[in-house]
Design a protein that fits this description.
The chain contains 10 helices and 12 strands. It has about 325 residues and is α/β, with parallel strands linked by helices. α2 packs across α3 and α6 packs across α8.
């Protein structure tokens, strides 16, 4: 997009998550004109989610004063570059659906769809904790676990659009079954749902991740054991990643990034498991909070331009 058209183009971003969906409208100058959050529909599957995303985009578009706008959508999965269908989504009702095509049909406007971890990583590199670093690995640790790679401020997707898909690297082939079909994936070890599932299998009680953390800090033996294992697994998984990628910085996002112990005992675990005796890689907490993804989605949409550019490949 040339600079003249860019200066006249607003940006709409949507962060589609398992629990909440957020929209933002950015002016051509980059200021926030509109923000909205709604719970992601939990009943009815794909149809209600599609309808809500379209409605939130339309609401933002009505408020855009610029002559044109772009639309970027971050999802917990990715589009197959051949079929255009969603794959690898932990919101499983999206899998196999032509989300971009369906949204373009409803909106009459080009749409750019990218992985939510890519959106998070881009935002943190442009305006957050990763700004100024060359190679950044962005981590989302929440209900699930994902990652993205940015090099000099640009997200790397890879030919299969799976660059950074750290959450589905199988660490323990004898471990818990993952929804992706493998066992012992990183996501089964250090996501909220993974820790909760392991606790239930071991102790027969269902506790939410925040309750496990709270009770661990208060000295409850079962929760302390589960929490210590979580921190050790974090060190093992991220230490191995650093050994492979050797990034200039790692930025943590998602709800679990607010666990203070990750930046103490967790980092010590990373140093223990990485293939170097003096690991100095900065492991940073995000600066943009849980809205990083929606800004990244808006900026990714801008890369496409108001006419859509290359939507699929």
């Amino acid at each position: 997009m040339d600079e003249t058209r860019k200066s006249e183009t607003a940006a709409i971003g949507i962060d589609l998550g398992g629990t909440k969906t957020e929209a933002v409208l950015l002016s051509p100058a980059g200021s926030v004109l509109h923000r909205l959050r709604r719970p992601t529909p939990r009943e009815g599957g794909y149809g209600p989610i599609l309808a809500q995303v379209a409605e939130m985009v339309q609401e933002a578009a009505r408020l855009a004063s610029a002559p044109s706008y772009t639309i970027g959508i971050g999802i917990p999965g990715s589009l197959d570059p051949v079929t255009g269908l969603v794959r690898n989504a932990n919101s499983t009702c999206l899998i196999g659906r032509p989300l971009a095509d369906d949204l373009e049909r409803l909106l009459g406007h080009p749409v750019r769809v990218r992985n939510d971890a890519d959106c998070f990583t881009l935002a943190e590199c442009r305006a957050g904790a990763g700004k100024g670093y060359g190679l950044v690995f962005g981590v989302i640790m929440g209900t699930g676990c994902g990652g993205g790679i940015a090099i000099d401020g640009r997200v790397r997707e890879g030919p299969h659009r799976i660059a950074g898909e750290w959450g589905h690297y199988s660490v323990d082939p004898a471990g818990a079954q993952c929804y992706c079909g493998n066992r012992g994936c990183v996501e089964t070890l250090i996501s909220g749902s993974g820790v909760e599932g392991a606790f239930y299998r071991e102790f027969g009680e269902r506790l939410a991740m925040d309750e496990i953390v709270s009770r661990a800090r208060n000295g409850e033996e079962r929760c302390r054991a589960a929490f210590d294992r979580f921190l050790d697994n974090f060190g093992r998984c991220l230490g191995g990643l650093i050994s492979i990628l050797d990034p200039d910085a790692v930025v943590l996002g998602g709800g679990l990034s607010n666990i203070d112990e990750l930046y103490g005992a967790g980092v010590e675990g990373v140093r223990h498991y990485a293939f170097h005796d003096r690991v100095t890689t900065p492991i940073l907490k995000n600066r943009l909070g849980d809205s990083a993804g929606v800004f990244g989605a808006a900026w990714i949409g801008m890369e496409c331009g108001p006419d859509g550019g290359k939507l699929r490949k």
